[in-house]
Amino acid sequence: MIHFWEQPAWRRPFLATMGLGVLVAAGVGDDGPWLSGAVLFAAALGFGVLFRLFPRGLDFALGTGVGFATYAALFTVIGRSAFPDVSDAVLGGAFILPVFAFLAAVIRRREGLRRIVEEGEIPDEEHLRRIGKFLLMMAVLGTACLSLPANRLGAAWQGVALVAGCALIGVLAARAVRELVRLLVDIAQLMDAIGGRAVSLVVPIAAYAALFSLITVVFACLYRVADGVSRGRLFAGPDGPIDLGFRDALHFSVVTISTVGYGDIWPTDDGARLLAAVEVLAGQILLLFGFYEITRNRLSAKDDRARDQEE
């Protein structure tokens, strides 16, 4: 018998999704290690079971990773907002409940689900109706958690309400397991299609990134030189005029060309403002260039495929 870790086909998708699981687990750990540990445990268990039953590859791994990360993010936001007094340990336990219910249903119905994963199915009206119904019920349940005054209850009753809600989610997920697996397959197919298109975008993306970096660095140097040779300070921050170092100049240049506007550094001199306006204009022209190159590259790829088919 070949051990799990000796299967090269398993290693790459599992490690890829676990990397995402580790990142999500670290991100949601606001009030202690329990929720982070629960997320990490659920990721390892869930991805391990799914890839053991359905070794589909990296695209399926990305599909399951997207679904898991979305669930973890929504659970954390709704759980901490609607049940603020629940301990981190209870929050972690409640997080695992729907995952256990879903995986148990997957294992129980693995033979029928394996055909869906391996062969794929074109989404039909019945599938869309069922998955839409499930997502609607999840939206209603999440809205109810945020709307009802559960946060006025004591910590113990908040925990009871949270666990009951997660148990209900687990029941619904188990009942809709076939549609959820089909949704993961749909996401995997979409990821595969996006990956195929991304190959043709490598050159335009690289050119755009190079020009973006060039413009950003050039204007950062201009800001720094202008501030250095000026008698007074040309830039200010929340505490007043600042001596613009290159790190601050580079930060301001990135913020300006991307039109983010954090408001932590701003020009106070007309010349510096004009220079910033020129950089904004250069950034917009660069954006148009990027769109043009991507469109031209796609049209060129279509022409090449049409020429190959004629030949």
TrEMBL record:
The chain crosses the membrane at residues 12-28, 34-53, 60-83, 89-107, 134-150, 156-177, 198-225, 274-292. This is Potassium channel domain-containing protein. Keywords: Membrane, Transmembrane, Transmembrane helix. Pfam families: Ion_trans_2. Residues 243-291 form the Potassium channel domain. Coiled coil: none annotated. SUPFAM superfamilies: Voltage-gated potassium channels (SSF81324). It comes from the Bacteria. The keyword Transmembrane helix applies. It comes from Muricoccus pecuniae. InterPro entries: K_chnl_dom.
